[in-house]
Specification:
The protein contains eleven helices and ten strands. By secondary structure, the protein is of the alpha/beta class. The protein has three domains: 1-51 and 94-113, no CATH class; 125-186, no CATH class; 190-363, von Willebrand factor, type A domain (Rossmann fold), CATH 3.40.50.410. Strands 7-6-5-8-9-10 form a six-stranded mixed sheet, sandwiched between helices. It has a two-stranded antiparallel ribbon with strand order 1-2. A hairpin with a 3-residue loop joins strand 6 (229-237) and strand 7 (241-244).
Length: 367
């Protein structure tokens, strides 16, 4: 019975994943999903699915309980009060299901046909974990191995002739007791750091930040599916740059101008201080409306990228969001000056519908 229920549950999960996969482009644009994110689960509304339930067959019986009933007759005899006039359209079933972020990332990867990311070079560290895989003759009672202790006592009593099959009582002695013990196990663990950078000048309004927030959520979900240990850092800038926490990153707005090179210099300082290139996979993402203070600063940005940031990074992704106030020229500068750089990817996001293609562009190379 348990196995049958487990099979039904797995089938139901596959149906849910299929519905999510069919509407993935729509889910990528739903900002409320981020608000429902838990520690390991995320809640998603899915239409057209009923919860599994028992369905009773028709035994050709009539009536309600005992006696005859009429269509429309209240079961308890109380007509009750309605909440308003009846509608004429059929209802739409909406089921809110919980799915892990790993499952969501897998669906994203399958639908966008994203290759799994392979950490570059020797960018992995070794962690030591304790695994209870051995036995010893001393230890705390909480770690006593009952089955092995029982077998040890039974073996001793049979060998000494003390075991009586008609009275199979097992008497334990101190020497019979065996305890679980641990061994240190070395396990390679790939680490990655994501540095998010964003222009918070006056030309970046609420709509632009919402696009950035959605894009960053799916970037984070996919990279966390590919790495066991991952950290995220956040840098905001106008003409000056500074590191902030996640909440400030998505809500801070300044009124100053824009100097993108300040963000790249701040990023270099963070990497130099905390992340050695031989131990970390580095992912850099910059979000802007394409406006910059001058052409000379744009050239400085390209120089910083080519000489300082790209050699130590798996990938640098630049996402340009549409704005009524920004010039939108910085993406053209990157494409002209860094066209030969394999680990530079650029994308435009004018509306939420563009997020689907932007995520695919960023991770299509499997870097």
């Amino acid at each position: 019975m348990v196995l049958r229920i487990e099979k039904d549950h797995q089938r139901f999960r596959q149906i849910v994943k299929g519905k999510i996969r069919d509407d993935l482009r729509k889910f990528l644009t739903r900002g409320e999903l981020i608000g429902k994110e838990g520690k390991n689960l995320i809640s998603i509304p899915v239409r057209g699915i009923d919860l599994p339930h028992f369905r009773y067959g028709d035994n050709n019986d009539s009536g309600v309980g005992q006696g005859d009933g009429q269509p429309g007759q209240s079961v308890d005899g109380d007509e009750g009060q309605g909440l308003g006039p009846g509608g004429t359209e059929p209802g739409r079933h909406i089921l809110e299901v919980e799915i892990t972020l790993d499952e969501l990332a897998d669906i994203l990867g399958e639908e966008l046909q994203l290759p799994r990311i392979e950490p570059k070079g020797r960018h992995s560290i070794t962690t030591v974990k304790e695994r209870y895989s051995s036995i010893r003759q001393s230890g705390p009672e909480s770690l006593r191995h009952f089955k092995r202790t029982f077998r040890q006592a039974l073996r001793r009593m049979i060998m000494t002739g003390a075991y009586d099959p008609n009275n199979p009582a097992i008497i334990f002695e101190r020497r019979d007791k065996l305890y679980r013990s641990w061994k240190p196990v070395k396990k390679p663990q790939s680490n990655a750091v994501i540095v998010y950078m964003m222009d918070v000048s006056g030309s970046m309004g609420h709509e632009q930040k919402e696009l950035v927030r959605l894009e960053a959520f799916w970037i984070d979900a996919w990279l966390r599916r590919n790495y066991e240990g991952i950290e995220s850092r956040y840098i905001v800038h106008d003409v000056h740059a500074k590191e902030v926490d996640r909440d400030t990153f998505f809500h801070l707005r300044e009124d100053g101008g824009t100097k993108i090179s300040s963000a790249f210099r701040c990023c270099k300082e963070v990497l130099d201080k905390h992340y050695r290139p031989e131990e970390w996979n580095v992912y850099l993402f910059h979000f802007s409306d394409g406006d910059n203070s001058s052409e000379s600063d744009s050239r400085d940005c390209c120089k910083l990228l080519r000489e300082q940031l790209l050699p130590r990074s798996n990938q640098f992704g630049y996402c340009q969001v549409a704005s009524s106030y920004g010039s939108g020229n910085f993406i053209n500068v990157l494409r002209e000056q860094l066209a030969d750089a394999e680990n530079v990817v650029t994308s435009r996001v004018n509306t939420k519908d563009d997020i689907y293609d932007s995520i695919k562009a960023f991770f299509a190379r499997g870097r």
